[in-house]
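Lay summary. Proteins are chains of building blocks that fold into shapes, and those shapes determine what they do. In this project we predict the shape from the chain. Here is one chain we studied, written as its sequence of building blocks.
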Amino acid sequence: MKVVVQADGERALEFVAEVNAGRIGHPALVVLDLNLPRVDGRDVLQRIREGEAWRNVPVIVFSSSDSARDRQVTVSLGATMYLRKPSNLDEFLQVGKLLKYQLDRRSAAD
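And here is the predicted shape, written in a compact code that computers can read:
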């Protein structure tokens, strides 16, 4: 499986536009930080959910914020899940297991 990383929100929007235009295929899963440089992750999430190609793509918001407002906003924008960035190794490994589960589930559905 190929992993694509975008350096900032502006580049993420360019990637979304490429998928929307059909020039590249959609990813199996998106892990999105809310506090991206240049363009906010909320704006990226909104653009993702506007595209038909993204309808069934899970978007997991991964943020250092534990704010109820951030959770509420991202869910209203169409996030599949909101995860607070882990503060220790055990929590980080649990997040890895969850992401693998999401990918395995997605692969089984295709």
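What the prediction tells us: The chain has a mean pLDDT of 88.
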